[in-house]
Amino acid sequence: MASPGAPMSVKQSLLDKGAQLMQSLKPIGQMQQHACTFAFHSHDMSRQIEAHHYVARVNQDILQCVVYDSDEPEARLIGMEYIVSDRIFETLDEDEQKLWHSHAYEVKSALWVSPRIPEVLAKLELANFTKIYGKFWCTWQIDRGDVLPLGVPSLMISAQAVDVAQVDQEKIMRRDDKYNMSIDALKQGRVEMAEPEWINPNADHWKQAGKGFVLEIEPTEMNAFAPFP
Questions:
Q1: Which pLDDT band holds residue 162 (cuts at 50, 70, 90)?
Q2: DSSP secondary structure of 33-102
Q3: Which InterPro entries does this one have (predicted)?
Q4: Which candidate, 31, 35, 43, 87, has a CA 20 to 30 Å from the CA of 79?
Q5: pLDDT band of 197, cuts 50, 70, 90
Q6: Is residue 197 part of a domain?
Q7: How many structural domains are present in the chain?
Q8: What is the pTM (predicted TM-score) of this model?
Q9: What is the secondary structure of 104-161 as a DSSP string?
Q10: Inside any domain, residue 128
Q11: 79 located within any domain
Q12: Average pLDDT, the chain
């Protein structure tokens, strides 16, 4: 699925390389982890995507992730996810909490993996991930064939079941083959991983209410520009 536009010119490539050498790209340099998982549109669980998160840590309690559709050079930026600890999550109001999903099952079931990182090292980080919450907005709905980021963002959720049956098994097999891993073996290796004693019921709201969230565009009056004195 190619996006519209002319191929990159030699001139543009040289300009980009020059800018890369001269400019500071410090925010991008903070992205130090790559995670792969699967996500569903909150209003339509028949629509699911493979999501590659590039993770930067704001501090010990807050992560910010840019999300691509693959880890290839031509990958498309399809959204962003914000991740907070349970301690931060509990400070949010109830309406805000309903936009977030828990990660315990996603981690324990080995849907969330760290490609090319030995599992023994990945588990050191993932031990804390069972107690975190994420808010994931998809801005480019490639699963419906969009060749550009069209329309409004879609709120995404993670699988929440006793097994991985909710996820397209072919998608899992393709991922496992690519990274030479086995979701069954990884899942078995995470059996002893501690689970949170309590998951806030306001998270994973779709599971409680059977309803997702959809954004709509609503025209509104603009605030008049007030010139500075």
A1: very low
A2: EEEEEEEEETTEEEEEEEEEEEEEEEETTEEEEEEES-SSTT--EEEEEEEEEHHHHTTS-HHHHTT-EE
A3: OBAP-like
A4: 87
A5: confident
A6: yes
A7: 1
A8: 0.89
A9: HHHHHTT-SB-TTS-HHHHHHHHTTGGGEEEEEEESS-GGGT-SS--SS-EEEE---S
A10: yes
A11: yes
A12: 89
